[in-house]
Structures are given as C-alpha cells and as structure tokens.
Amino acid sequence: MSHDARESDSLRERGMRSRSLPILQHYYKCDNDYEDSKNMHDERRSLTSPGYGSAPRLWVTTNPRTARLLVIGVVIAVLAVLVVVVTLIVVLENRKGPTSHTPLPQAVTLASIMTHLKALEGIALGPGGGSRAVLTGYNKSAEYVMDQLSANTDCDLYTQEFLVPVYTQLSDPVVALQQPYNLSFVVGSDFLQTRYGGNGEYNILAPVFDIGDGCNASDHTNFPPGAIAIAQNGGRCVQYDKALNAEALNAAALLIVMSRGAAPAYGRVRSVGWSPGIPLVRIPVLSISTTMGTLVRNVIASASINLVTNSSVVIANTFNVLCATKSGDPERTVVVGAHLDGVPEGPGINDDGSGSATVLEMAIQVHKTGMPLTNRILFAWWGSEEIGLLGSRYFVAQLNGTRHNDMQVALNLNFDMLASPNYARQVYNGTTVVLPGARYGSEKIHKMFTDHFDSSGLAWELTPMTGGSDYIPFIEAGFPAGGLATGAGGIKSVAQVVKFGGTANTPYDPCYHLYCDLLTNIGQDILDQNARAASTIIQDLAGRGDLEEFLRPPQYETETN
After folding, report:
1. Which residues does the annotation mark as catalytic?
2. pLDDT of 1-33, one tens digit each?
3. Model pTM above 0.85
C-alpha cells in the first residue's frame, strides 16, 4: 500500500472517530520542520474540504492562544449548565412528594423553629417601628412565612383580605385627680388606654359619674352630659358595648375598672368582631386598676379628673395567610392556626411568634416527611388577633355554613404563646366550651394533649377556653377546638412553681406586650416540648379515618337514628 493510500485510510479512520466523538480537534505546529508543517496543512485542508469523503466539517485553529480561550469558554459553559442543573434539583427536591418517613414530632426541631423566630425578630427590629403590628412589621412577617412555604412545600398558598380599625397611641395618656385633692395616677400600673376610641387629641377636665356595669344606658337618664363615666368590667355586656353606651350618654370619656387583682390592660374593647359599618368608639376609653377605681369612687361626689390623650384610629387593609395541603380528605379539614400579628408595643416573639414559627415548621415538615394525610390540614396565620381576633373571626364569618372553599372544617387547633419563660404548661380545657356540640369534641382534643404529657412525664394544667385567642370564633360557631398555651401577663402562684418550677408572684411572661419580648424572652425547653406535643396531636388527627365519629357527641347518634 502506498504512503498516500495509507494516509488516506488513516484520515478516514480519524474522520469516523470525529463523528463518534463530537469534540473540537486542535492541531498545533510543533516545530519548524517544513515537511511536518506541510503534512499538517494538508491534513487540515483535507479534513475541512467539502470534497473529502465522509469526514465531518470541523473548525480548527493553529493559534495556541485562541485554543486556550476556547477551552476556557467550554469549561465555563459546562460549569454554568451544572449550576442550573443543581439548582433545579434542589428546588425539585424541596417541592416534590414524600422524601422521608420521619415522624412529624421528630422532624419538627427546636433549632428550625428558633431560625424562624430569629427572622421574625429581625423584621420587628428593622425599619418600621420595633413591632409586627398591622401598620409596622406584619406584612413583612407574612412575606417571610409565604416565602418559606413557597420554597419548602407544595401547599395551596393564598391570602384572605379584610379591613380592620387600627388604633395608634401617639403619646402617653395623662390622668390626674384635681378635686377634692391633687393626685397624679401612673400610666401602666394605675391605668392604660385601650385599643379603641379616642381618635384625636383630648384634654378633658370633668366630674365623674358611676354607671354601674355600663350595660344599659337607659338606666342612667340623670347622667350629666360631658362627665367622665366610670363602669365596672364584666357584667352583662362586653367592654365595647359599655363604651358605646357611655358615648350615647354624651360622656366625655370612660374609665373601666378591672376586677380585683387584674392589672390594667390595653385590652380589646371590641371582643366580638368588627366589619365595615359597625360604629367605632370616638371617646377615650381607659382601663384602670381596682385600687384606682376604688379611690375615685370613694370621692366621686366631689371628684374632678383631668384626662389627656392623643391617639388615632384608621381603617387599614390586612390579611390572613392560609396554606392547604394537597392531600387528605377536604371533607374533614383540620384547621391549625396561630396569630402572626403582634402589638405595637413590642416585637411579639413569644406572643405569638412562638406559635407562628411552630405552625410554620410543622407545615414545612408535613410536606418534607411525606406524612400520610387521611384528612386535609389547613395551616393558618391569623391577622389582627391583637385588635380583636379579627382575622379568625373574619375566616369563620366567611364560611359557607361549615365550609371554606372546597373544605369542610372539622376542628381548630390554636397555638398562642408556647414559650413563656416563667411558664405553666397549659392545655385548653374543653369542658369550659359552652355549646354542647363543640364541647364534646373539645374535651376529646384536650384529653389527647393531656395523655401525651402524661406519657412524657410532664406536668400540665387546664386553662379555660374563655380568654381572648383565636379558638373563640370557632367554638362560638360550634366547632371543636383545642390547643396549648404557657401563660401571658398573669401571676404565677406558689402551687404552680411547685408543679412547673419558675418564680412565684411574677408574670408567666414578664415581657408580655412589651419591647423586651425578644428571642431572649423565649423559654426554649417548654417551646420544644410544646412543639412535640402539637406535632403528635396533629399527626394523630390528620391520620384518623374516624375523625367525624371521634368528635361527634354520643347523643348525636341517638338523635339521628
């Protein structure tokens, strides 16, 4: 075989390899030998010539610098593709179906909850006023929750918008007795201005008139217009009705005397919900201590009080955040909620960042663990709880009978303040629910929690379901409810110290509704225990095929047969 023939066969063979391995062919001039250069030139020409057999067209360079740049370019392109692929894999891993079978109580960790709390604290302490209230950090708190849910779950995520009246105290109120002697009262310990009414600046000097419990304006036809009304808390009506009645009597302001032992509270004058069209209180309303109330009543015949307030009430837009699991029977939906808003006076990390962060991590881990769901879960972060449970009230008010969208609500679990540092381990007492239909299921739920703590060797106590948290609208509408708490501004007793440890005669949460409600205010051990309890009960309820029968009062079966 001639040299030319052998060269031709060799080139065909190399051309075949070029087709099977699609890579750039680089040929370099290795020395100055003319023959080598000529052969290389002939080879390059034959490989790129259109007339050459079956060899592919290849772009070839003899410039070493250009070749190096090409190689670098190829490497960069490959790395860019790898980055995109890895990113897509991570996203899909986060959003795809079941990834493990870890039980929910083990998957929901204190470390993850604390990470969420740290983010909420950062939002509260950022620009906007040092809180997570409706007009300050609430929207950013909701954005954080929704970002976490979008990145780590595949739930149906949406918001539910509504209007709320938002009270802002522009300066500390001043109250002083002018007659029969001069005495200045102390804001915080003697009195606080409540979160409704007093829209504007007021400087009032007026006599005081006692209107009893303030529940019936017609009982006081002799009320002197322009006087300051004083009324006892409790009785036949809520505080908001007392305020409206005082306003109907042409009172200049209202002082509500707290029950013995109870401290003055910012309070929710409106505790029964609000919607556009319902009148707002115009006059200032103050919560006063029993001691101050007794003193004023003892000299009421000649009493004259100077009262100065500066506040505003505006109507604002806000919303609930809702996240419904894709699996589970929508005809048996477990609503799991915590309020995401805080008071204007502080960051609200225990109240109720602790509940919100725990519910968020449970929602994430329900998805990541692929927890089997017989029943659907609707995770909820309520807005405007601190104004008057307005987010949860709006949710319940918008139900079509007992349905939310395509979901039949079965029950509500509520988690409000899970980490008070001087805690009592509290379980909502289902026996205190008024409506019989809701009471039976609520008792079953509270027993699930107490049984869990018993099996864990942890002491507990029951707390009445008569206070102000987001289970109230549900039990008022006839739904069973339950949940956990650890105490707010109330005082811890000696008996509770024996049971739970801590310090007697001090609040469960010394930073309740104050600026010091920060990460440092979190009781991490009790938070961890409550998160495990909540996860255990949710896992049980969401997996029950007999949920309706479990919650239904026995007499219902007799009545329907």
Report:
1. 385
2. 444 444 444 433 433 333 333 333 333 333 344
3. no
